[in-house]
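Let us begin with a simple case.
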Amino acid sequence: MRVLDDAFTSVMFDLSRLQRTDVDLPGLHRQVRDVDFALGRLCDALEAQRSDDDPPEALARRAFHDVLALGQTLDGADSEDCRTAQILDLTRAAVGELLDTLAPFVSRPDRALRRVVLDGESLEDAIAWMRGQPEMVRF
């Protein structure tokens, strides 16, 4: 889980350096809190292995979708300010790392969704890609 922690810390650090410009900071902060909560639940479930928790696969999927939503918001964010634009690029890269880390633990359709939503791939190409991919890793 160290990789998740490092990638999330990078997202938090990069976003903390943003100043109020044409970027919806309160919206980004809400999404980061959602990601934090989802990743925290996933890590707690993996460490504690309690039977009253949601299954790790469901928690990983929730975390993946929350990170994907953050990435989609960042994908539409831009700034004329060079410093802000650079921070947004760094944050997008950190979101990509989080998605890469979670990818083995989510389904092929979820991974294909990333390709459509963030990479701009056509739905047909994503479906073709999905057919050749291995299924997710079980916890």
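The second case is a distinct protein. As before, the sequence precedes its structure tokens.
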Amino acid sequence: MYILVVLYKKSVKESETIQGIISSADFLKNINAIVHIWDNSPETSLNAETSNFFEKLFSFKYTHCPENKPLSFIYNEAINFVKKREGLSHLVLLDHDSAISSAYFEELHTIIQSKQPADIILPQARFENLIISPARLFLVKGIYFKNIKAGLYNKKLLAINSGMAISKQFLDRTGFLYHPSLLSYGTDNYLLNFANRHRAVYYIMQFSFIHGYSFYEVRENAKRAEIFWQIKKANKLAFSFSIIQSFSIGLYNLAASVKNALKYKSIKYLIRK
């Protein structure tokens, strides 16, 4: 198991995800997991003392990247590492703000050890009172589950990156890599839509955690609008695998632009300067 955590302007001590990993250290060491922290922050938050602390806990890697490489680059680096390294069965992606615990890693390991025929394993993520991930896919729109049953799932899904475990077998079988034009948003939709087209089998975990929703949590209108434009651009790539989806995402993006322009009373969602 290769666990990748991406940080940006967040120290290792401030990251909720890192704290969850530290609390799971004994278990992760026992299963020979590799923990890789990729830090896109301008300044490193890791000194010699902190590095020694992590190296005593489990197999540990740290990469400081002040040039702030896009997620597509970072994830592709991780994919290539997993494919080349013997003994690694899954790539686990984690954001910096996911409330995970040892229960997550224990359930994930149990699923992997049971040899379930799953290409991608997904935890449940919640925001306020909603299950925001995974979600059913209808054309280009995710439809939230009201209730969700743990186990194998072979229909089309969308899901957030954080917590997903991608099997090495799926990566080898499909040759999947992220499109290099993807920046901070849309990598999740790109992967899941690719996986859906390759008839991927999913496993939905019992474990659930609270996760933020960056677009709705941003208060500054200009910043929210910029995130919206990045999401629009990313979705055009994510749903470019078929003519029907390409047409549908164009209509969906237009409708979303009008809706947000009216909701937030700003033309920034219609016209990008």
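The longest strand covers residues 202-210. The chain has two domains: 2-212, 221-269.
Keep these points in mind for the review questions at the end of the chapter.
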